[in-house]
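Reviewer 2 asked us to include a model.

Predict the structure of this chain.
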Amino acid sequence: MRNGLPVIDCDAHVMEPEHIWRDYIDPAFRERAPRKLFSNNHNWGQLHVDGQPIYRNYPEELVGAFHANTVAFYGEAYEAGFDAPSHVRAMDQQGIDMAFLYPSLGLGVVAIDGQDPALAYAINRAYNDWLADFCSYAPGRLRPVALVSLHRPEEAVRELRRAVQQLGMRAATVRPNPVNGRHIGHEDFEPFWAACEELDVAVGIHEGCHTRLPAAGADRFTTHMAMHTCCHPMEQMMAFVSLFEGGVFQRHPALRVGFLESGCGWVPYLLWRMDEEYRLWRFQLPHVKEKPSDCFRRQCYVNAEGCEPYLPTVLDLIGADKVLFASDYPHPDHALGEELEEILDAPLTDDVRRSILWDNAARFYKVEPLSEGSPAPESGDSPRSVGTVRLAARSSD
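Predicted model (structure tokens):
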């Protein structure tokens, strides 16, 4: 807890060791697995998949800056290889009780237009198997979010079901960007969204910069400053438009969607504009019977940053029950604990702060009711045994 408040981190990140891609992937794809062509000891160094770089406009000086910030902000965890015990220690230092874990490099390894779908889903499976092992160190506190790419809809459904039914995951993440010319509300993805609703899975939509998918700003800018400014909020806006226009919210009213790592200030403007456009042109969407703002308020969430100067106004406009807290740990944009400090310092009432730090995320992810005290860390023995069994089975293939 922090200041007597329980805390769920709705969007923390793992920093994937390079070896996991070759160790966990199906042996048939091992030679095509993500890898660095040269080692510079930088966690954020360029990865290649199938011989091609996963990032564009990604100079070494930018990689060096990411690395320097990572070491400065998270030195102890960096020295520990960002393993599960160091992640739990970082949570303790911040006062975070539970964290839902999203990819870092994993946001890019399958974010490739035209990628061989068989390879994409082999990488998905490898990542999800490794993440399940990682979280088994402290399953009450480290919660896995399945990585699902949308290169082939039927495979996306298959991997989602496997992650839920075999690995016990209760949340999944997809990119907001178009994949192979299909935006996420495209009719071809209807089976995926139906499966998310059926399996009661929370879906976190998460952007990542510099990847080889179409992204807002990447068609005209090359600096990280400009690309990063554009892609996160603008791709989330277009993702919501896509899901609304495609009737996904209409067909799946129990679906829960979170728009992550883009702040919350874009939401009131987008909902106002979309409601106006829908009022004028709704005849083009005969399959949609509700306003965009109604769909958002029923089933969507967004994470906020405490430093957003208009945060209290946004909460009044969209509802304090729709806003989540995220640390973004251990990414180089923020120092350890900075994001939580900003929420604690923001001009919010205690009730609203508790909603943001626990209640809303508990509802979004369907976390079990809070018992007395914080969830306790579990033994660190289980990931080694689980991982050894899984890897042994792979090695025998």
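The chain has one domain: 8-395. Residues 8-395 form a domain with the TIM Barrel fold (CATH 3.20.20.140). We have added this to the supplementary material.
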